[in-house]
Amino acid sequence: MGGGVADLVTSGAQPLWRGRALALIGIVLVAFSLRSAVASLSPVLDHVAEDFPVSSVVVGLIGAAPPVCFAVFGLLTPLFERRFGLERVAVVAIALIAAGLLLRSLAGDSTSLLAATAVVFAGVGSGNVLLPPLVKKYFADRLGLMMTVYSTTMAVSTFVPPLVAVPLADSAGWRVSLGLWGLFAAIALVPWITMLVTNRADAVAAAPTRSADLTGSAPGDATRDATADDDVFVATGPISTAPANPRVFGRLWSLPMAWAIALVFAASSTLAYVSFAWLPTILIDVGGVTPANAGLMLSLFGLMGLPCSLLVPILIVRFQATRPVFFVAIACGLIGLAGFLFLPTVGLPLWVIFFGLAPGLFPLALVLLSIRARTPESAVALSGFVQSIGYAVAAVFPLLIGLLHDATDSWQIPLWLLVGVLIAVIPAGWIAGRRRTIEEDWERRHGRW
Questions:
Q1: Which CATH class is domain 14-207+225-241?
Q2: pLDDT, tens digit (0-9, with 9 covering 90-100), for 236-278
Q3: Which CATH class, in words, describes the domain spanning 245-442?
Q4: CB-based contacts of 292: which residues, under 8 Å, 6+ apart?
Q5: Each residue of 144-157: pLDDT tens digit?
Q6: 187, 205, 262, 295 — which has fewest CB within 10 A?
Q7: How far apart are CA 222 and CA 332, in angstroms?
């Protein structure tokens, strides 16, 4: 960006802490809880199974819960947000995460474990939707920096829980290991509740003054954030959280570009949630590692997402390297799976590193949601289309992997299935690499958008 809004944002940038320290702390804590809730269970399932049986079906359902909840609550959360406001819905979402994590640590059987996990991911699904608007509301002048802060926090919280989960379970028990993350989520409630209380008092005191300020203000000087409970003034114009236009959304079903991005997103999500559910067990069974080392390997898998989240957007936006990034991610995934299949006891960390680079498809898909649409309205529609399909597909595979393992008493066919997923998505990656928007796709086939 070479001017206009970019210059306005830069010139009007304020220190991160000025008047919004609670928002900064709250966003970081929420971002940490969103991923730690997903990554903290599978490393200690062996410890849980010592107290009560946890079948492969239950593990598969636990692995399928995140994408299902993300899809369902991704649709419901905007409705709640419009009715109650960002902060109030965020408090409820964080409370669900904290309560679910604590209940999960108290589970007495596989049914209660699964039910508590569903509560956790209901909150996480809402949090995924709410976090970007919260960043925009409080940090409109520092969007790039704050997006990096919260995406890096999420990457860190992907590899930290597996790193400490098993040692903590060994020393203090699996209930303490699981409940710890609920404590972090509960702490995340503090800044948001504080802001709700103080903002309500400030809104009552300042309402007449703000009405006067709005009268006669020049265009572009200050605009109201339509998503806020309170008035927030930013230099970049209003932030819209309007839903996707149904007409635009309907057109996407016939566009190869939209389907290509959706399938890339689906492949990335499939690899991620299958790994969160099954990778420690796979490594224990085929690699002969201990549960503690399997947890470290899952942490290593998550760690590989950190350089991907930092480098992939730059490579795509600045260097138009969509296809090279895509094929490198596919190749790395196939190398990692080949290692698991043919040389699982030799160089296992290396295979995990390669396999961990395959979910580099995730930041790739997120960037494409922005650059493959001309307008914000189209981008919202494309995002809804891609995530609905992607999470629906990803929800199937953790359960399917568990069923295949039970049926064959082996990990060979499940691993070959993941090989098939990576190979099958190659045509979609090629199409997604075309330098055109969904509008251009439509105009080539149907005329005017």
A1: mainly alpha
A2: 233 334 445 567 778 889 999 999 999 999 999 999 989 988 9
A3: mainly alpha
A4: 166, 167, 170
A5: 677 667 777 878 88
A6: 205
A7: 48
